[in-house]
Amino acid sequence: MSLTSIASMFFLPRQRELKRHFNEAEELQARVLRYLVAQAMETKYGKEHFFSKIKDYDGFAANVPVNTYEELKGDIDRMRHGESDVLWKGRVRWFAKSSGTTNDKSKFIPVSAEGLRNIHYAGGRDAVAMYLMSNPRSRIFDGRSLILGGSHAANYGAADSLVGDLSAILIENINPLANLVRVPCKETALLSDFEVKRDRIARETLGKNVTNISGVPSWMLSVLTRVMELTGKTHLEEVWPNLEVFFHGGVAFTPYRGQYRQLITSPSMHYMETYNASEGFFGLQNDLGDPAMMLMLDYGVFYEFIPMDEFGSPNPTVVPLWGVETGKNYAMLISTSCGLWRYVIGDTVRFTSRNPYKFVITGRTKHFINAFGEELIVDNAEKGLAAACAATGAEVLEYTAAPVFMNENAKCRHQWLIEFSRPPEDLAKFAGVLDSELQRINSDYEAKRYKDITLQHLEIIPARKNLFNDWLKMKGKLGGQHKVPRLSNSREYIEELFKLRSKN
């Protein structure tokens, strides 16, 4: 009997529990809300918003405002300075450093001990549980797990409080037994210099029986490329013949799918998408044949949604899970056992099913282009790029896009800066397919492109090798869970990249 066969038995009770997501979804969410309110009743935030009087969802929605990071920032800073019972009961000692806001370089997301256990680690556990359900012949525990992580530092100089990448916080607090089956070693995993870390990880994995890998697709690809350089092999299965699954999340996988298929040609290789963020762990791909993920409903996260056609209006409609409709684009709100309350996480989702509740990530509330009424979202961009790559044989590594506003001839267009791992032979054809596909899938974009009246044909500018990595490095965000903004209504990001491009 293999180690995987033995380990699989420990997942059986949870696999049975997961079936409740199919027929008890609303009950699971109502239970989570009651629990969160009860646990935070005596906190500063709970007292200010009359948690003791909240009996149901309507009471919760009436007493608690919708929040962005700006509204919670002051309380979070109190927590970082050691104050207890602010947004969540007790003292919170860990803070996940995330991409910043308009006013700040970084956000600091509280991670309570309870949230670490019942949200973040629970998501990792369930990823394995669901994978084993889909692949009963798996040998995943018969080898090592390659898990990428970021780095952390002392919070305000306090030795018992950490701030940094969520992945680093997870590695720092992981059960020591897990270190027996994972690579690299903890010291390497927590290195702050990604370029040094990349090389060390690659060297530490050589000769190991790696059966599964976990991490952000872009950073993992960089590590795997280094592994191939060191070994001189053509395909990754020549290095790790028993590799069977990549648990990926953090960024959309679509731009990287072709490159991974070239790197890993084994027909038995699986890819499982996860929706994990600094703020929590929210979704898992329960059917590897369906790109939609199942919303995880019993983790200590209560979900609400704002229709995107109302987002940003003075009094938008806010609905709980049982109020969503399939096929509609929503901004997601979360309330969690880490102390985030009706928090606008910044992601947009579209439900594909209500039994169970399954969804796809469509983009960001702020990462879109709507300079001319075209309402281009990341989901559109990913589909358009996939079509252009399929038509031309190209492979996209990184990209960002922004509007070009009216010139002296009143001409407007979108400008795409793309780093290709395999450039198209005909860049004009690539641009044409991308533009046509965006018109096909987005009626607003199509209307604005009509006869070039409002919006001209898009422009593609190839980026030099490693431009985006150099930009992230300049920002101090190379590695970890940091990512390039894909779409922007302003030209801030693309102009910074152009300046860096011209210096090299």
UniProtKB/TrEMBL annotation:
Annotated ranges, domain GH3 C-terminal? 380-492
Per UniProt, residues of the GH3 middle domain are 295-364
The record's listing under InterPro entries reads:
ANL_N_sf, GH3, GH3_C, GH3_M
- Species of provenance: Xylanibacter caecicola
Q: One matching Pfam family, short form?
A: GH3_M
What highest taxon heads this organism's lineage?
A: Bacteria
Task: Please report the name of this protein according to its UniProt entry.
Answer: GH3 auxin-responsive promoter family protein
